[in-house]
Amino acid sequence: MSSHVINQEVRVKGTVQGVGFRPTVYRLALECQLHGEVSNDCDGVLIRVSGMDTKIKEFLNRLSVEAPPLAKIDSITHAVIERAWDYRDFSIRGSSHSAGRTDIAADAASCPQCLQEINDPNNRRYLYPFTNCTHCGPRLSIVNAIPYDRCHTSMHDFKLCATCAAEYRNPLDRRFHAQPTACHECGPRLFLSPDSPATSIDSAISPLSLIQRTQSILDVIQQALVEGKIIAIKGLGGFHLCCDASNHASVELLRQRKHRYAKPLALMAQDMSVVRSYCQVSEQEEQHLRSPAAPIVLLNRLVQADANFPALSSAIAPGSHLLGFMLAYTPLHHLICQRFGKALVMTSANLSGEPQITDNEEALEKLLRIHSANNESDTTDTEIADLVLYHDRPIANRIDDSVVRCHAFGVQVLRRARGYAPRSIALHSSFQEADQILAYGAELKSTFCLIKQGSAILSQHQGDLEDVKTCDDYEKNLTLFKNLFEFSPKHLACDLHPEYISTKLAQAQAQSKNLPLLGVQHHHAHIASAMAENGLSRTHAKALGIAFDGLGYGDNAELWGGEFLLADFCESHRVARLQPIALVGAAQAMLQPWRNAYAQIRNSMTWTTFQERYGTTKIAEFFEQQSLATIDRMLQAQVNCPLASSAGRLFDAVAAALDIHPDKVQFEGQAAITLESLVDQNYLAQLLRAKSTEPCYQIEVLNNPITQLYELNPAAMWPALLDDLNLQQSQSKIATRFHAALIQAVLKTVDLLRTQHRFNEVVLSGGCMQNEVLSTALQSAIQERGLVCITHHLVPANDGGIALGQAAIAAARIAKNALSTEIN
Question: What residue stretches are annotated with the Acylphosphatase-like domain (predicted)?
Fold first, then answer.
C-alpha cells in the first residue's frame, strides 16, 4: 500500500505541560519530516500534523515511548482532518488558556544531565545549587497561579540573563520554557548565617566570584558536619535539620533541641552504595529511591552493616528494624552529600507540633535562636541549628518529603507529598461526569481532594489540623488548588466526626456558600479510597471491606476502628467488627497503652484471677503503680470510658503487656510499630500453616445475637499471652503469636461472611494495614481463597487517603440521585 499525505489532529491528556512535552513533539515532528504545530491548552497538548501517513504512524508510536521523564500520559487520541492545512514547517505555538483541566507536574529530583553540569568545572552551571531543566526541578513548590509561566512562580523576580534566555527560547534545548531555569548570574543565591567574610555577598559580584563563594559555603558546611554541628538547610518544599548520622552525640542533641525524642529520623545519602551499606535493598526499592519522586523509602536494616562505613547512631530509629533513606534530590543536596560522603540525618525543620518551616526570616528566628517570648529578662538562648543555609527563591507551597514502603505485593505510599502531589488519580470512566466536588478529608494526616471532570486531585500531605499553623496552611493550600485548577466546588464532603476541624471547615463553607454537604462515614471512606485508586466502576458490586485503624466516627455516634463492611461507592453495611472495649480515659487511652491493656485484661478475667496468676509480670507491677481504684470507678460508672472497636488500641494493649512503651507513646503508632518489628517471619509462617502443631493464641469469632454481627473477641487470647509472660517467653515469640492470631481471626471472619454474602473482592484499608506483617499475610491468604484482594498503592491506607474516598462516595451518590431524578 503506497503512502500518501494526510492531516491529523492529536490530543494528549495528562501531565504534559511544564515537563518539556512540546519540545519533544517538535523534535519528533522534525525527525519524522512532518509539518504542523503544537500548543498547550486547557485540556493538555494539541498537535496538528501534516505528512505521509507512514511518518505520522511513526510519530505517534514514538510519542509515547520517547515522552519526557516527568510526563504522565493519560490518553492520546487522533483523528484524520479532511480540510486542507497549509503548514510549511513545524512550530511551537504559545499557550491558549480557557477553563478546563490539565495536570500540574510534581516537584522532581535532579536529572543526570543537570548533575553532570554542576560537577563539570568547565560548565557555566558548575556548583550552581539551583540547576534544573524541563526534566527536573521545582514545580508545585514554586507555583502561585496559572498558567504555569515564570511570572506566576516564585522565580518572577529573577530576570533571565542573555544565555539563559536563549536556552529558554530554543525548542531543541532541554530548558525550553523551563520556568525555574537560572544560573549563577541571574538566579537565586545561597546565604549562610552566621555569615563570614568568605561567604558574604556583594550585589555586583561576578559569576566567577559567585562560584568561589558557593565553594566557600560548601566548605563551611562540610567542616561543620565533621565537627558534629546541626545545620538547617532550605530544601525544595521546606527547611530540613541535618547532621552526621554516624555521630551519636549530634543525633541525640538534635532530638533534644527539636523535642523529638522517639520518632524515626529520615536519612539522606549521595548514592546507592551508602544506602546498601546499612540496608537490604530490593530492585523495586532501588527503583523508587532513584525515581524522579525520590521519596523516603523504608528499608530493612542489615543485621551486620558494612564495616567500610561508620555505624549509624542508635538514636536514628529506636525500636524499629526499618531505616528511612532517600537519595539527594536537589543540586544543593547533591553538592553537600557528595562532599561529606556519609549518611546524613535530614529531618523536617520545625518546632514541636508545628508544620515544616519554609520562610527565611522564620527559620533564622526560630531555628538559629529561640528567644524567650514570656520573659524579656531571660537572656538564655536555645539553639536548634548551629548554622542556617538558605536561599532567596521563596517556597510558595510547603511540601513534605513523601514516604513509601515496598513489599511482596507492590508499594505502599505512607505519606503522599513531594514528587507525587498534585498529580491526578485516574478514576474509572464511569466517573467521567463527576465534577466540582470537594472533600475535606480527616483531621490527622489530613489531605483534601478535588474531583474535576472525572479526575481526582489529591493534595499533598497537610499534617495534623489540631495545630493552628497547619490548619492555616491547609486553608491556604485549598485556596491555591482552587485557583490552580480553576475549581469552584458545587458539592462538599466531609467526615461524620462533629469535632474534626476539617468537618467544621466544610460545614462553615457549606453554610456561607449555600452548598450541599455530604457526611461520609470514616471507614466507608477508607474502603472507597482503595476502590477508587484501583479503578473500580462507580456502579461496581459490593466488596467486603476490612478497615482497621485507631479510631473513626461510626454510626449512631459509636467509635469504630476494626470494621468489616459490605460496601460499594454509594453505601456500606457493617457485617463484623472487633469486640468493642472501653477506652479508659477516652483520649488518654490513645497516648498511654497500659490503659488499653488494662481494659482488655479486665474484659478477659477478674482482677483477682489476674493478680493470682500473673501478679509477678511486669505489666502487673506497672498496673500497681496506677490509680486503679479511680479507673475501676470510671469503668463501672461508664464515665469517660467510651467503647471502641479499635484495632489500633488492641495493638497498643499487646505492646503494653510486653513492656513496650506502656506508660506513653511519643508518636502515633509507636507501640504498634515496635510490636511489628519483633515478628519472626519464619515462625509466623509456621504458625499460619494449615496443619501447624505449634500452639497459637485464639481470637474467637462469635455471632452476637443482639447486634447480628460477627465479633472478633480477643478475651480468650489473654490468658495464653500472659502465661507466656510468666514463662518468660521472648517478646518476639509473643508478638508473632499475636499477629498470627489476628490474621487467622480475620480470615475466619472472611470465610464465615462468604457463606452469607456474595462478594468477589476483599478491600484492605486503614492505618493498621500499613503493618506489613498483617497486610501481606492477609493478601496472600485472600488470594489463595480465589478472591481478589484490593489494597492501596497510590494513596495512603491511613487517613491521608480519606479525602479521596469521601470524594468518590460523593460522586457516586450524586450520580445515583441524578439518575433517580431522571427516571422519576
Answer: 7-94
